[in-house]
Amino acid sequence: MSTRPPAGPAWAGSLMGTSIAATLSLAHGLVWPGRALLVVATALLLTFLLGWLRHRNPGFGQKFMAPWGMVSMGIMALGTAWTTATGNVAPQLLAWLVGMPLGVVTCLWQMRRFTGAPTFLWGLGPVAPMVAATSGGQLASLLPEPWGPPVEAVALGCFLLSLLTGVPVFIRVFAARPRLPAAFAGTAWIPLGIIGQATAAAHLLLDAPLARTFGLTAFAVGIPLLLFAAGHFWGRAVRRWADYVPAWWGSTFPAGTLSLGAAALGWPQLSAAFLGLLLVHWVLCVARFATR
Fold first, then answer.
1. Would you say 70 and 124 are in contact if contact means Cβ atoms under 8 Å apart?
2. Domain total in the chain
3. Which residue segment(s) compose the domain that 102 sits in?
4. Is 1 within the bounds of a domain?
5. What is the CATH number of the domain that holds 141?
6. What's the confidence (pLDDT) of residue 3?
7. 180: helix, coil or strand?
8. pTM of the complete model
9. Which residue from 27, 191, 210, 279 puts its CA 20 to 30 A from 248's CA?
10. What is the pLDDT of residues 35-78, one digit of tens each?
11. C-alpha to C-alpha distance for 259 and 261, rounded to whole angstroms
């Protein structure tokens, strides 16, 4: 009997990765790939919603909130993709109004207690408000008065919440030197998600000099984390063609946030390179799923 979770929140990493791949493809001028990815991401959301309505697995009151953090981020990422594709702010706003409170509650609920051995999946709850910070910062510049300033204030609160919770969690996990099974090696990319996402959010919410200093510092910290993640994912999961589990998708969204962060820092070539890496990871995840 398969031990994989039923369709639902546990699989939402694929929604996150596909949605941000759609947004970045469109932003970099890859129109048809971006639109195709947008269709796939929308289908994934509908599939996971129907799966959860059927199985109700996992429940929301559990101690391990990573799946719900992924749902929050996936919804917001999909809303951003639709707004990027259509130029209509409504999808991103609706997704933010749903995903932002879900992400905040998920983060706070997760911080009450962590169970089991430290794992990078612990950080998915605390990272969710950072995605809300970026999306909120974007919305603040698009919404008419008087809505922009309060949205920006909420986004700044999400930015601080994620930093104050996510950074200590990842430090705790690294300090424990977690042993990652090959099938879960993709989760080594998760700490890089907060690096790229926070850099993008900072450039939307903070003064330019502070945002740039923050971004440069974050990317400097991210260099050894990138080497660590690539070594685990490529050296173990990909090289061994490890068993498929949803954790493979942990390699996708963080690569996308690094592309966002590089773009915010004014490095278009590096942003395009990280988009290329994201698309390669996306293809690998799909291929492994197809051959499971």
1. yes
2. 1
3. 9-290
4. no
5. 1.50.10.150
6. 64
7. coil
8. 0.96
9. 27
10. 999 999 999 999 999 999 999 889 887 778 999 999 999 999 99
11. 5
